[in-house]
Amino acid sequence: MNYSLVKENTYNDSMKLMKLQNDLGSIEGVTNCGVAMGTPENIKQFRKAGLISDESSDLEKISPNDLWITVEYSTTDALSVIEEKIENHFNRKISEDKSEDDVEFTPKTIASAVRRLPSANLAFISVPGRYAVIEAIEAINKGLSVFMFSDNVSLEEEIKMKTLAEKRKVLVMGPDCGTAIIAGAPLGFSNVVRRGKISIIAASGTGLQEICCTIHKMGGGVAQAIGTGGRDLSSEVGGKTFSRALEALSQEDDTEVIILASKHADGDVIERIVRRAAKTKKKIVTCFIGSEKPVEDIENGVFSASGFEHAAAVSVALSKSESLPEPPTKHTLQIEMRHTIDAEVGRFSKQQKYVRAFFTGGSFSDQALQIFPDYLESISVYPHQDGFLKLVDPDASQGNCIVDLGDDYFTHGRLHPIIDPSQRMDRLKREMNDFSIRVILLDVMLGYGAHPDPAGLLAPIILEGKKKFEEKGQYLSVIVNICGTEKDVQNLDEQKEKISRTGAIVLDSSRKAALLACLIGSA
Amino acid sequence: MEDKILKLFEGPLSIVNIGVDELLDHLSELNGEVLNVDWKPPSDDNLEILKKVLTANI
């Protein structure tokens, strides 16, 4: 039996939609449900989940601003509970904490918000991407800097926002900016780290998180961690946010070392940024994943690093005037993890060939792309990059494969996989029916904004997968890179323990995890 | 020239939050200043015109 409801012109943000969906899914007798705004991407997802057919009459009238609820249930008792939950969701009472006055004067626009909060200096924007530029321009014109968590924003709109921000002398972090720490305040996905003398500018969300966590682990501290959005160092955007952030940090007394980090970036833009950085009086560490050669100018205090962990290590050493550490290599890792590698390698069957990586962000994907080709062949990548095979269907892996599940394709109309791991869990369940796999490589991100217990959700799937392979006389190797600190809300030690108990290998470095996956996968 | 950004870096942050309220709940716990906006999307019929008008002089 099916219950379907379309509420016209009713906007709910992704978190509220997820909460309602979870509430409906927990009703006894409910077998499947979907709650989403009526965008074409969500309709496609509903079709894939078997929640709608082409003949559904709701399809004719639904628009992207309509909220669509569809529930499949198997018992007649479930219907009244479904209706009650939905009614309660939309008739949510004012909480005891809020007076009627608070609700009455809740601002509905940035303009009215700034009148209510004249000290406002930052707009945090997480509305659906197609509306984000409108809010950003209003905020910039009011003199606010912008942190844009929203993705699915066009390149043209990004250039417009950042050009306007230059004129108004404010900063635009984003779009698709996952993380920042500004004035000690964690924004978006971010970890609890010590304050200190190292600042980071990064076109790389999960990369920025790993750098911050590693700095903290090594005894250093973070002054500012500025996310710029993944396209800032493209030729089109030209490093607008990078440049503004660098100028400001060069004048900031608390900052002694600046890390410049990015996944794929334009060579000319990098060169311009680094030339400018060399003129500051700060020590500079560069970490440009995918750059053809190390970007450094040691005479002028610019040092290059190999990977996020190494960038953090070099910056901590510079901040303490210590000698600079070497990056981890295949050889150092083989020595360090010899027993682990030997224990994994001897257990595969002949039909097992492939390494598959499923990341929650592009930074770890790009880092893996620099490492995989030295060990593996015929690598498919989503989103596609030159020099690699294209995944015909992003939802179905082939051969050796790296998939960034944080890409716009997977997050359109859905929560980011760091917040809601369910999409990756569904993907993993499918993958674990493919007995040609040797190694699955994953990342788990902790901190603010992340799921409260990602390891708790992942562990049973890993266990089930390993059991399936064992029943076939085969072995599935699973490697998990956990990024977080001991001060994060998820309890780092507990998260590591939950994954370790499944027999998966747990590391705290994305580069080491990618190297290990290759060493085990190619042996 | 960089006063506004340097002041941002000095803190404290005073944030107008447009979108998902829960993303900044932790800042309220840390005594940060966050004002949530009760945002609703504009009509899709007007969206492209609105964008053109806003970005015309940039």
Main sheet attributes: strand count, strand direction, barrel closure of chain A: 7 strands, parallel
Total DSSP E strands of chain A: 20
Q: Which secondary-structure class do the elements of chain B indicate?
A: alpha+beta
SSE topology string of chain B = HEHEH
Strand order of the largest sheet of chain B: 1-2
Total helical segments of chain A = 20
Helix content percent band of chain A: 25-40%
Compute the separation of the termini of chain B in Å: 20 Å
β-sheet strand percentage of chain A? 15-25%
- Regarding CATH, which class of the largest domain in chain A? Alpha Beta
What's the assembly state of these chains?
A: heterodimer
- What is the global morphology of chain A? globular
Write down the CATH topology of the largest domain in chain A: Rossmann fold
Radius of gyration of chain A: 24 Å
| CATH fourth-tier homologous superfamily of the largest domain in chain A | Succinyl-CoA synthetase domains
| Largest interface, C-beta within 8 A | A-B, 65 and 46 residues
Outline type of chain B: flat
- Estimate the strand proportion of chain B: 15-25%
Task: Characterize the biggest β-sheet of chain B.
Answer: 2 strands, parallel
What structural keywords apply?
heterodimer; A: 523 residues; alpha/beta; Alpha-Beta Plaits; Rossmann fold; 4 domains; five-stranded parallel sheet; 39% helix; 20% strand; globular; B: 58 residues; alpha+beta; 3 helices; 2 strands; flat
Provide structural commentary:
The complex is a heterodimer of chains A (523) and B (58). Helices cover 39% and strands 20% of the residues of chain A. Chain A is of the alpha/beta class and 523 residues long. A 7-stranded parallel beta sheet of chain A has the order 16-15-17-14-18-19-20, with helices on both faces. Chain A has a 5-stranded parallel beta sheet with strand order 10-9-11-12-13, with helices on both faces. Chain A starts with a strand and ends with a helix. With 58 residues, chain B is of the alpha+beta class. Chain B has one domain. Chain B contains 3 helices and 2 strands, in the order H-E-H-E-H. A two-stranded parallel sheet of chain B has the order 1-2. The longest helix of chain B has 12 residues. At the A-B interface, helix 6, strand 4, helix 7, helix 8 and strand 8 of A face helix 1, strand 1, strand 2 and helix 3 of B. Strand 4 of chain A pairs parallel with strand 1 of chain B, so a sheet runs across the interface.
